[in-house]
Each structure stands twice: as C-alpha cells, then as structure tokens.
Design goal:
two-stranded antiparallel sheet; 197 residues; 9 helices; two-stranded parallel ribbon; 4 strands
Length: 197
C-alpha cells in the first residue's frame, strides 16, 4: 500500500506542479550559471547509493567544501537558492525519486555516505526502509542550519548532536510507520511550512 500510495501521489504531484517546476527552473538559470538540478549521491534503502534530485540552490562547485550548510545566509547559496530553501521548494524534485522508487514520500531523510559511515550497526537499520522527503526529524530539525551556525565546529556538532537525535527519530519511525501515519506526517509537514511563512 505504501508503494502504491507513493506512486499515485508523486505522479499526481509531478503533473500538478509542473508549471511551478518550470518557473523555478527559469529562476534558477537566470540567477546563476549551472544546471537546474543538483544531483548529490545519498544512501538509500539497503545501504545502496542513489542520486537525489533537488533544485540547485548553491553555486556550481560549492559542495566541494563543507557538506553542511551554515545559517540562513551561507555565502555559497544563490539569491534564488535562499528563497527556495526557505520555502522548502528545492525539495520538490524529489517527487521524481519517489516515483521511480529511490525514495518514499515519508521516511528517514537520506544522508550522504560521509555521515552514514559514522552510524553504528544498530543505527544502520534505518536503511531497512526507503528514505523520504519528510519525517518527524525533518519537522523537528527544520532549522538545523541556524543551530549549526551557532557552533564552533558545525560539522562536529551535526555529527555528535543533531545527527544522533535525528537517528533516534528515524529509528522510531522505522518501528511504527504505516500508511496512515505517513499521511498524518505529510499534513503536519504542510502545516509547519505554511504556518512559519
């Protein structure tokens, strides 16, 4: 049921949002040189790598440095990228990943291999399910960039504090996820995004 729901919902979403995709694509291209999409390698179900779709929000080559984005005004982020991130619109292309089966609408957010390498054998069980666009950790730590901006060593703070808390929530999700629980989280995510704008 979960997979059928993902295919149906992501297919409808891609069709319905196609005009918005086009407008965002134009904005990304006009604002800075480079591709419309950013396709970073993430770790998915069964510990397999896949390429995630996002609208590009940073200057080309900016990801060669730190893997974490710091604060609301990271200088590597483009003008259009700032607003796409603020409104969470940069995540919309992940509906493509959902449709083709790399991801689910709801599930633990996929990490890059660099951070997964820090996980314990128990924590790796997070990868028993498909990663998702949203989950309880995404809602709780929706402003993690601001939290890291206050740390002396942002990447260390992410690995030792934020990531550990997120993994606890990921593991709780793996234990109790269901279609109805997922639907509730989708509505909660929409509410949080709208209410904070």
């Amino acid at each position: 049921m979960k997979r059928a729901f993902d295919i149906l919902a992501s297919g409808i979403g891609l069709l319905g949002l196609s005009p918005i995709f086009l407008l965002i694509a134009i904005g990304v291209k006009v604002d800075s040189s480079g591709p419309v999409f950013y396709r970073q390698v993430r770790v998915g179900r069964h510990n397999r790598d896949f390429r995630i779709f996002k609208f590009r929000t940073m200057r080309v080559g900016a990801d060669k440095g730190s893997l974490v984005t710091i604060g609301g005004r990271d200088p590597r982020v483009t003008r259009a990228g700032y607003w796409l991130r603020k409104l969470k619109l940069d995540e919309l292309p992940q509906l493509i990943n959902v449709f083709i089966g790399d991801m689910s609408l709801v599930g633990p957010r996929p990490e890059v291999r660099h951070f997964v390498d820090y996980w314990t054998a128990e924590q790796i069980h997070v990868l028993d399910v498909r990663p998702g666009i949203t989950d309880p950790a995404s809602i709780k730590y929706r402003n993690e960039n601001e939290l890291m901006a206050q740390a002396d060593d942002p990447e260390k703070y992410y690995i030792e504090v934020i990531m550990q808390e997120k993994i606890k929530l990921y593991m709780e999700y793996v234990e109790k996820h269901s279609v109805w629980y997922d639907i509730g989280l989708i509505f909660k995510t929409f509410w949080v995004i709208v209410s904070e704008r």
